[in-house]
Amino acid sequence: MLPFFFLSKQLPDALIPTIPGPEMPLACLTDFRALAQERLPKSTWDFIEGGADDSFTRDDNIAAFKRIRLRPRYLKNVVNVDTRTTIQGEEITAPICISPTGFHCLVWPDGEMSTARAAQAAGVCYITSTFATCALEDIAATAPRGLRWFQLYVHPDRQLSKQLVQRVESLGFKALVITVDVPKLGNRRHDIRNQLDLKLNLLLKDFYWLKERTSMPYFQMSPIDSSICWNDLSWLQSITRLPIILKGILTKEDAELAVKHNIHGIIVSNHGGRQLDDVLASIDALAEVVAAVKGKMEVYLDGGIRTGNDVLKALALGAKCVFLGRPILWGLAYKGEDGVKELLNIIKNEFHTSMALTGCQSVAEISQDMIQFSRL
């Protein structure tokens, strides 16, 4: 199956990324950010990097990690440091996975297929977005051994959502991630100023496929159901055998409701600061959610992860693993599959170093007594 659109024909020139040439070695994730910004059109870059309203939460996601200090323990044998862990019973090489982000073809021609191959090579989980710009069959086929979850925005037409859930289950996706923090799109000022309207340039392949292959523009489909509530989760559970993860939980009250409704996991997230501004940074909300679930489900985190130290801090506060959003798009814009692999390798190596320098042989040894919050 071919991707549902061709960049060169259906996207304006202003949205088509330039293809990079050889560069000097990159040393950290922010190096990829600088290169991606150079190579992407301004409107595309603003779409990826923009936050809601004043972008306070977007920036605080990163700043909040710097308010946490490490408490290393020395004279411990760290000859053999093992970064492996499991999520939902599946082993990954490190607790560093890929968040769902849409429209990967905006930054690299074969989009999500490159991302999926990089995740498979790295041995980490990739959450594919409802707004993927490659066919799910192609994503599954290009990385058949990769661990994939699927992120779902529930459609007002529940039959469409049911068909899509059954489709991803048949393709070997291992979990269903329901994004809960988008009953309405956040106020993203950069996109308003740029008059960026992806609705006029992109067709959603997955819902198009379900509508008997008739052209179905995104803006005609109103794909996000604003009415979905806690009681609807039982319907989702009735149509799939996949574990259900809720993405976007920030409070103990909602975490307790997730336990009550037999959810399998939570991703503590504020949507990269793209939805409701002035909410807690993800890392600042993590401990509250972890305490509320009382070990009854796995808790993950996305938002603001930029270094191996950040990963260790999140795990010390109770996250089972972290997910990367924008940095993956930076790597993809830099060099496609190879760029994402390089970026993942860098942060995995940083995390290995962080573990060794704090005295941890295994992920299980990372604990809350290894961190303290700064008074600054």
From TrEMBL:
UniProt xrefs under Pfam families: FMN_dh
Keyword Acyltransferase: no
Domain FMN hydroxy acid dehydrogenase, residue spans: 21-376
Keywords: Oxidoreductase
PROSITE patterns noted in UniProt: FMN_HYDROXY_ACID_DH_1, FMN_HYDROXY_ACID_DH_2
Highest taxon of the lineage: Eukaryota
SUPFAM superfamilies reported for this sequence: FMN-linked oxidoreductases
Names of the cofactor(s): FMN
Catalytic activity, reaction form: 2-hydroxyoctanoate + O2 = 2-oxooctanoate + H2O2; a (2S)-2-hydroxycarboxylate + O2 = a 2-oxocarboxylate + H2O2
InterPro entries: Aldolase_TIM, Alpha-hydoxy_acid_DH_FMN, FMN-dep_DH, FMN_HAD, FMN_hydac_DH_AS
Family to which the UniProt record says this protein belongs: Belongs to the FMN-dependent alpha-hydroxy acid dehydrogenase family.
Entry protein name: FMN hydroxy acid dehydrogenase domain-containing protein
Gene: HAO2
